[in-house]
Each structure stands twice: as C-alpha cells, then as structure tokens.
Amino acid sequence: MILILSENGDLSTTQVIQWLDFLKKKWIRINVGDDVDFELIGDDVKFLTNKHNFKLSEIQSIWFRRGFFSFKFKFSSKISVIDDFLKTEFKKIIEYIYYKLSEKKCINNIETYDVNKLVITSIAKDFNLNTPKDLLFTNPNVFEIVDDKKYITKSISGLGMFSFEDFTIYNYTRFINKEKNTIKSAFPSLIQDYIEKKYELRIFYLNEDFYSMAIFSQQDKTTSVDFRNYNRDIPNRTVPFILPDYIKMKLIQFTKKININCGSIDMIVTPQNEYVFLEINPVGQFGMTSYPCNYNLEKKIANYL
C-alpha cells in the first residue's frame, strides 16, 4: 500500500493518484488537517481516520508530498508538570513513527518538507555549484551600491503570494532602487547580484533522473526578472532541455547531502553559458514542466511509488 501525505486542492497529487488507479496500486491519501489517531500495538502502529484504518506494517512506500499527520494530544492529568512530561513523551512517539515511516521506500521525508533557501544555497557552494551571492541587511544604508551593477531582492522564505478578501499581492523578485534610502532600520532583507540570463531552467528531479525545461523569460520585459510574473497574453516559450552530465553529477551529490530525492530545481544559464543554481523546492509544482515537455511526470511518480 502507498501512503500519500498531501493537502486539499493539490492537483498534482490527484493526477498521480489517477495513474496509481490505472496501475492498480492501492493507496491512501491523508491531507493536512484530516483527523488522524493511532494505536500502538507492540512493534506496529495502527492509524485511524474517518475513512481508513491501516497499519504501519502494511505501508510499502510513502510520498511526503505536501502534508503531515495532524496528531492531537488528548491526554490530561490536570497537573501541569505531569502534562508537560506527557507531551514530551507524546512528541518522542511521533518522532519514532516518522522514523519508522522513513525506513520505507520514500519520496522525500518529513524533515525536508520545508527547506531554508539560505542554508540550501550555502550547501550548494560546497559542491561547486555557482550561486548568487546572498547578502542580508537590516539597515538599507549599510548596503553600498556599485554604479555599474544591478541588484535584486526576493523573499527569504520563497513565499510568493498573499491572498486577502478582495485582492492578492504577488511577492516577486524585484530590482533594487539605487536612490539613497533614508530608512535607518528595516525587516531583514535579502539582496543578490542581478545575474543576466540567456534563459531559465525549471528541472524536475526524481531519484537521480532529471526532466528539464528551458524558459525563454529574458525575451519579455514582464518576465525578465522573475518568470512567475507571467505574461498571459504572450506566454514565454518553453522547450525540453538536456542538462550537461557534469551539472547532473553536482546536483546528484548535492541532493544526497540535503537528503532530498525529489523536487523542482531552478537554475539560470548566463549568456556565457554558465549554470547558476537558484533553489530547490521539494514540494514544488511540476505540472508546468510535465505538460509542455510531454514528460508525463505524474506517471513516473506513480511508477516509482
């Protein structure tokens, strides 16, 4: 049986499940927020949901897509010191359950569900991957601008959208204004050198296999800084792309180090044909690569599971 931890509304999960049904593979999907309880039965664990009851021993593989178990602590002695102890014990049991799950055949794991972009780019440098230089500031005036250089700023977390009741704010990569700032203090901000690009690469990575797509975003001023700022009237041209072997080897070594065997990788190819690593997202969407390039990634994930 295949266990999928996801979230409501994730289309990619649904499309992989359609292939699992076609391949006649048994699966269970649990979304974030689903009520899940468990019983400990010796060396096994029984999971209890509104729809399914199943044992850890029945699970053959697991896909940590975009979710986790929402276990609830239901015990109370009404004595705070004792309750603190019980919560600590409960936490250790949950850690053990995830450890036992990680011994199965997995796509990623609970520890790499969310990665720190600053840490990731720092590790990437250890494998001789070119990366932008990350600069962090709380005082904008400390940052000295070189006249002939361009700089960009982007979110540290990678969050790109904030939805309100009547409108949505998109948090895209932006150029830095070179005018002197009078603000003496600001929330910590990330600044990078702007890297001129020949084209961008979106790469889907699965267990040492690469499915790459070139995005010709530089040819449109709307998308030249950040291709996510889509021009829906004239979409960027996208084509399948083959990575050089030496880049593949670096990325394989890098992903093993950070314990990620699946994810969406963003890179830039410069006019000088240099490859620059930007980030890896273990829970990134991959339909934008699968369909234009006819990679059928949903089927490949289903086969892997």
Architecture blueprint of SSEs:
Layout: E1 2-6, H1 11-22, E2 27-31, E3 36-41, E4 44-49, E5 53-55, E6 61-64, H2 80-102, E7 105-107, H3 117-125, E8 135-137, E9 151-154, E10 161-163, E11 168-170, E12 174-175, E13 189-193, E14 199-206, E15 209-215, E16 238-241, H4 245-257, E17 262-269, E18 275-281, H5 287-290, H6 297-304
Parallel strand pairs: 1-2, 1-6, 6-7
Antiparallel strand pairs: 3-4, 4-5, 8-13, 9-12, 9-13, 10-11, 14-15, 14-17, 15-16, 17-18
- First and last CA, distance: 9 Å
Overall residue-averaged pLDDT value: 85
Instruction: Label the structural class.
Output: alpha+beta
Spans of at least 5 consecutive residues whose pLDDT stays below 50 are none
What best-fitting shape do the alpha-carbon axes yield? globular
SSE ordering = EHEEEEEHEHEEEEEEEEEHEEHH
User: Fraction of residues in helices?
Assistant: 10-25%
Largest sheet geometry: 5 strands, antiparallel
- Strand tally is 18
Q: How large a portion of the residues is in β-strands, by DSSP E?
A: 25-35%
Gyration radius, to the nearest Å?
A: 22 Å
Strand order of the largest sheet: 16-15-14-17-18
Count the helices. How many? 6
